């Protein structure tokens, strides 16, 4: 049986790679005087350089020189330069095996290192097992093992041996985890869990039932979620099982439990494994169900408010006649009064002549009614939805343990009162009912008469519960998304220890006084510079007028006609190909399908045809049923089985990283960029009729429901990260996710977005995490700049300067800002989740305000640079253009079902998005490789200026057949 896959090919190459960058070469391979004395004792040049190379390799990365090994030229040149020897001398080293062996033994004794042997294999594998229990990620374990071997002065073996050790450690770690969980389950737990897997011919298993997507937000579906939660609760599974389980293990087992079909799970004969998977999945799924219920409540309340406002607008339209009558009456009455006053006529007589008294009273009554606070409140129609809310809210409040942070106690008191009234059946609010939480928006509705209206009181409490859950002022026990804010972050003890050791993973000086001094000094300097340029009239692109400024939009550089003709000629030389053959060819080159490993065994798929068909069905939005019909030799059962066992979010992510890494190493990409900058943008896809209630309507994209695909693309056209988000969610929430969690070899330093991608919080967090953030902001001239001192210090900028930066506000929360940033970098919480929480916080939250203040400094510095540097504006525009061009290719690939996403579950929708991005990346890679060949062919006939290659793009698809029967011709 083949070994479990531990590393991908690109990871293997990464761990095997030797230093080539000047800084790394200097760090690891600079010789001391003692080293040089020892090296110069060798008699011939070839032996001196060979001895030196062995010395370097044994120190770092900590291994011996292999026979006939080809080492990087830059490394040999760096070593040779220190020895005043020509690098070519190394080619003659160790023609005699004995010489290399003698040098090795001498160095091993001198450096006090050991050769790797069988005893080391066993001991180090045992050492690795507890680490694998905590973190089963293969690349992490390989890195930890190599580092420990260096610490112990043991020369590490070849990478395949390291992989076998890691695989053995992972198997033993799995066994420990399974036994640990199994021992905590009593007999009744095991019986109950097995019943969840049992099926009969008429009814599905409880496991299949609980996995089914609930559907659109509505009261009935919230009740279904609560029923599912009750079913899991009835098992009485020990919560301690997941409480002390490492996070990565919980995610791994929960993922297996979500994918393995009930009948396949029932067939696992290893009881500890079977029960561990099912137990952890159900406990983790219960948390997901809590989140789903709260999110559904959020969307129902949001829908209720929208409906009320829409009906209010409709009512205003209907009341137009009455409003006009009231205005006309008032105008006529005013004329009568003015004329009577001027002519000193009898006022009452004049009024009687102009109006009948009954008519005037009616108009007054109508005007009074129209002007009542309740009538003018857009939420007054919310009461129409009260019966719908009552269908589920008593159960919702009863099921969940709501708890309050500092700012949410008043709302929680109201929720507690409503829960007590539901239990007792009371309908009248008590005299001491909490009232301080009622906002101005709801006040006129709650207090219409002498006593509070119970319906509107309850609606207000439920609405405020939604708002406070969003912000984190109220949280839910057992939730993942709505937990206590402090629970998202690393513990204060851990943070304190890391700070004491200087190990905080942040990109700024951690001493606040020093940091703020340096930053404000830079801000003053930039303000001085721009103020001087404005005074001298040297900012030609910037106009300051009134309280705003205008920056001329960047004018795109026209592509020379010669370059256009050349691009057409190059693309005409590209071969025609079917999308199936393209994917097979790319897989032959990169082996990206090896990343789709079996959920249980960890082995890659043997049936590559079915796997590629599943991936393509996701990418082109065809679905498995129709793909089975269009793909010769593949049945729906084969495709479904392959999808269940091999296709997951993490598989798609690893496969994408393989393509991106390979693409990054091709030669042509250097004509487009060095891979250090990127951009991100959202692309809206409509949802079909079946899934329309799962999407949101964003007026920016029209009146139909949809979802957004948010994609990060490098300056080399590599779409290195993608995610599915609600279309009403601001893009800025997800900017950092792509920069932090892409898993590729790209080293992104600068990132671009459009207006939707920027907030002050994102500016601050990007700077703290070491990314330079450069958004293209629409109406940038309407933004104010925040100076560190009085605006009078910069007279020519005074009209566009706002209030001064408040360092004290940041200083008081500095440790919390660093703790938050460290938590994001370490993966304790995702950047998108915490960014969403911060954006939802009420204005009085000190951490959110401090981070916003911090971000204002970075935003001001950026705007000042934007005003000064046309090249920055050009760079940002070029980066965003690449993302928009990639979206066109994605739209062309995702053509089936009218380009609509019709899956009901978020999980299946995300597979569509991941498959689409993977195939787009494969097309880009294939195009890049064949563009290089086409360029070489054209160069045989004519010269091609290097500058013209930057105008090329690997995003063309006219030469690729995306439709027809999908026939797979695989190499044996």
From TrEMBL:
The organism's place on the tree of life at top rank: Bacteria
Keyword S-adenosyl-L-methionine: no
Keyword set includes ATP-binding: no
Residue ranges occupied by any Tn3 transposase DDE domain in the UniProt entry: 581-966
Key words of the record: DNA recombination, DNA-binding, Transposition
DUF4158 domain residues: 7-169
UniProt-listed InterPro entries: DUF4158, Tn3-like_transpos, Tn3_Tnp_DDE_dom
A Pfam family recorded for this sequence: DDE_Tnp_Tn3
Family indicated by similarity: Belongs to the transposase 7 family.
Protein name (Swiss-Prot/TrEMBL): Tn3 family transposase
Originating species: Endozoicomonas euniceicola
